[in-house]
Every structure is written in structure tokens, then in C-alpha cells.
Design brief:
Oligomer: single chain
Helix content: over 70%
Shape: globular
Order of helices and strands: HHHHHHHHHHHHHHHHHHHHHHHH
Largest sheet: none
């Protein structure tokens, strides 16, 4: 049996990776996702493999198997990402998002915008069970409304993500919720009810912060908003008929149709609406100089797979309605694959288990038990770059420990979600952080300080443990 690396040795690849990512993000900024971050992850993977093979005699086939398993686990997420790229392009060019923005700017008062955004995304996410779907649909529309009202990108994205991950965390339709309960052998609805103890206070505090920030916000000049709406109406055929697409999408979600099928059908419906309501835009996108069927077909394909840019008489609107399609997701997919390579290498060497064993040593009282679980979950998100892998590893590692010390399994399942599910989106190289930064077109480090719910959740988990509220321990 191969000797497991010590916690100190196990930290070397992570320390080097963090230093490389810090340097690349500092030098390349938002362009770091174009290749520098991927190279950093592969460099960290290479260092991990080197240590494992040279010093611990771990065969290459073990690394290959672990990396393959990791990449296989995110294939569905990659497909969803590609469809989201097509969805975002088709929803924009079809006029669905512009219509939502057009009516939303007039309905939602600027003072209530941030709090309303958080609540709307929370409701939609509870119904869908998916933060990704919520952010890729209603989130994009709310992003446009917020920009029109003069809010900073970080604030808007923070409100969207806070609400979306609240719903993702407590919805019985959420994959992470089901996974956390099943890994820890906790009945699903018992798990959800127990999570409300930490989740409700966190979201209420977040909404309060957003409400205060909203009332403190100096709204954009009414004339500027009117100009924005006029430009929007002049470029797109704004009509309530386009709302059929989001309504139909909501029905598909309510029917519990699988996410991939739902998103695909939604993108297809939006494409049909584009041909009906925005044919001139398809001809503009195709740049073929004709208005025949071939031009329409070319524009439609480009809407789904490529970058589009429509000229308007409003610079802010021109920037808002530009899309990237499926091709805009390729850097993110590339990054996810590289991140899975790093996580697989760390798993194959046993470095992850070695580091997390350190946390177990501090588990003496309830607070230290929960704090160690939180710290381990956060570390997993940093090291494995995937929330699903992090949930599985955290749950499996602490399940027997909690049982031996007499704690209920629901305490572990709740703490795992508090530490892993909601913080995954805060890590720039995590699959969730990369995805939402790409979909919202806001860098992870830009929206991170404003994701109050996501930041508060692990803290609230430790606070409730310190209070001891509804924490039962068998003697």
C-alpha cells in the first residue's frame, strides 16, 4: 500500500496553484479565463502528479482513472453550459430578455430593485431547483434592468446569486439538496426543514442589506432611463407575446422535465420567436446583405453558436444586448476540464484525505465539529473545483465521525450544504464560479463581496452550533 503524503506536502500543489491564479488574475484580469488560469490549473496538476509518482510510487493509471472519473462527473454540466450559451443568445436576439427588461424597468422601483431581485431569484430557484437555470434566464433579464437603473454590476450579480443559491439550497428539486441528504443518510424533507434554521436568517439579513443599499442608491436620471427604453423599443419588436417563452419554460420546470431538455426546448422556442418577431435582426447578424431564407438561417445559427453584436444609438444598450452563444462558453468548459484534472490528481495521491484529516483532530465540541466541517467543505471547493465532488467527499469523510460522537446525520447534511453548495460560486476556478461569471459577464471577484447570503451561510452554521439550537447529541 502506498504511503499517503503528509498534510504539509499535500498543501504544496494548492499553495502553488493559488499563487499562480493570483498572479494570472492580477496580470490578465478578466482575460485570465482565456488560457492563463487553465495553464495554472494544469501546472498544479503536473506538480501533484510529479510528487505522487516520484516520491510515493503512485502509478500513472491511478491518476488517469481519477481524472477520467472527475471529468465524467461534469459531462452533464458541460452540456448544460453549451445549451445555456445557445439559450442566452436566443433569448436576447428573440427579444425575450429585452421585453422583460422593458417592462421590468417600469414596474420595479429602483429603491426596491436589489431586494426584489434577490426575492424573485429565490422564488424561481425554489421552483426550479436550479441556480444555474435561474441565473441563465431571469437572472440575465434582471442584470439588464439593474444596469438600466444605474446599479453596479457587483451589486446586481450579488443579489441574483444570493437569491438563486437560496432556492438551490432548500428546493427538494435541487440536485445538491438531494445529494447532501442521500450521502449523509438523512431523509430529504428532514434535511430541508433543518436547513431552514440557518438558511432563513441568512437570506433575511441579505435581503435587509440589499434593501438598505437600494434605498441608499441614487437612481439614474429618469431621462436616461427613458432614452434607454426608447432605444430598446427602437431596436427590438417589444411585445407581450414574447413572454410566452419564459411562461412555457416555467411550465416545463414545474412539470419536472430534466434541465437539459427544458433548456433545449426553451432555446428552440426563442429561436422560433426570433424568426417571427425579429427577422431584421437575423439579417443584420448574418451580414449577408440579403433578406432571403438563407440569410435568416445563417443569422439563426450564429445566434445559437456565435458572438453577436447589434448596433444601437445607446452605448450601454449595445453592450447589454451583445451575446456570445455556445462559443462564449468554451473558455469556461476548458477551465472546468482543467479544474477536474487538478481535483482528480489531488484525489489519486490521497492529498485531499490527508489535509482533511487535520480538521478531524479539532472535533471535540459541537462548535469545533461544525467549524471543522465548514472549513473542510470550503477547502474541498478550493481543491476539487466542483460542488458535487465536494459534497460527496465532505459527507463521506465526516459521516462516521458524527455518528461515533452521537450527532444526528441532519447536522452533517446541513453543515455540508452551508459550507459547500452556496460557497462554490465564490471560487473563481470552481465550476459554479466560472459558470456564473460567464453567464452574467461579471468576474467572480467582482460579485463576491456582494453575495451576502453565500458569505453568511457558513458563518450562520457556526453561530447556530455555538448557540446549540436544536442540536441533539446522544451520550
Amino acid at each position: 500500500m502506498n504511503k499517503v503524503p503528509s498534510p504539509f506536502i499535500s498543501c504544496i500543489p494548492i499553495i502553488i496553484l493559488v499563487l499562480l491564479l493570483f498572479t494570472t488574475i492580477r496580470i490578465f484580469g478578466s482575460d485570465a479565463l482565456s488560457g492563463a488560469s487553465q495553464i495554472s490549473l494544469l501546472t498544479g496538476t503536473a506538480i501533484c502528479v510529479f510528487i505522487g509518482i516520484v516520491f510515493y510510487n503512485i502509478p500513472w493509471r491511478d491518476f488517469e482513472l481519477a481524472i477520467t472519473n472527475n471529468i465524467t462527473s461534469v459531462i452533464s454540466a458541460i452540456i448544460i453550459l453549451l445549451i445555456i450559451g445557445a439559450l442566452s443568445g436566443s433569448w436576447m436576439i428573440s427579444g425575450v430578455v429585452p421585453t422583460l427588461i422593458y417592462y421590468g424597468v417600469q414596474i420595479i422601483h429602483p429603491s426596491l430593485f436589489l431586494a426584489s431581485t434577490c426575492i424573485i431569484c429565490a422564488i424561481v430557484s425554489v421552483m426550479t431547483g436550479s441556480s444555474w437555470t435561474t441565473i441563465a434566464t431571469i437572472g440575465i433579464a434582471l442584470m439588464g434592468i439593474g444596469k438600466a437603473q444605474g446599479f453596479d454590476d457587483g451589486w446586481i450579480a450579488g443579489a441574483i446569486i444570493s437569491g438563486a443559491y437560496f432556492g438551490d439550497k432548500i428546493s427538494p428539486l435541487s440536485e445538491t439538496t438531494v445529494l447532501a441528504s442521500s450521502i449523509t443518510d438523512t431523509p430529504l424533507f428532514q434535511h430541508i426543514r433543518y436547513m431552514l434554521i440557518t438558511t432563513v436568517p441568512s437570506i433575511l439579513i441579505a435581503i435587509l442589506i440589499f434593501a438598505i443599499a437600494g434605498f441608499s442608491h441614487e437612481a439614474s436620471n429618469t431621462g436616461q432611463i427613458a432614452t434607454f427604453l426608447t432605444a430598446l423599443d427602437g431596436k427590438f419588436n417589444i411585445t407581450p407575446w414574447l413572454l410566452i417563452v419564459p411562461v412555457a419554460t416555467a411550465i416545463l420546470i414545474a412539470k419536472r422535465i430534466p434541465p437539459i431538455i427544458t433548456l433545449f426546448l426553451s432555446a428552440t422556442m426563442a429561436g422560433i420567436c426570433t424568426v417571427i418577431f425579429q427577422p431584421d435582426l437575423l439579417h443584420e447578424i448574418s451580414a449577408s446583405g440579403t433578406t432571403d431564407a438563407s440569410s435568416t438561417f445563417k443569422g439563426m445559427m450564429m445566434t445559437y453558436y456565435g458572438s453577436t453584436s447589434l448596433e444601437t444609438n445607446n452605448p450601454a444598450l449595445t453592450d447589454l444586448v451583445s451575446t456570445r452563444g455556445m462559443s462564449g462558453m468554451m473558455d469556461t468548459i476548458w477551465l472546468i476540464i482543467c479544474a477536474m484534472c487538478f481535483g482528480g490528481a489531488m484525489t489519486a495521491t490521497g492529498m485531499i484525505g490527508s489535509i482533511t484529516s487535520v480538521f478531524v483532530r479539532f472535533m471535540k465540541k459541537t462548535v469545533s465539529m461544525v467549524a471543522s466541517t465548514v472549513a473542510s467543505g470550503l477547502f474541498m471547493n478550493l481543491a476539487t473545483a466542483d460542488q458535487y465532488i465536494s459534497i460527496v467527499l465532505t459527507g463521506n469523510m465526516f459521516r462516521d465521525v458524527y455518528k461515533e460522537k452521537g450527532y444526528e446525520s441532519r447536522l452533517l447534511s446541513r453543515t455540508t450544504e452551508d459550507a459547500v453548495t452556496v460557497t462554490s460560486v465564490l471560487v473563481p476556478w470552481n465550476s459554479c464560479g466560472m459558470t456564473q461569471a460567464t453567464v452574467l459577464n461579471v468576474p467572480t471577484l467582482t460579485y463576491l463581496p456582494y453575495c451576502f447570503f453565500n458569505i453568511l451561510s457558513p458563518v450562520m452554521s457556526i453561530i447556530i452550533a455555538a448557540i446549540g439550537y436544536k442540536i441533539v447529541r446522544k451520550k
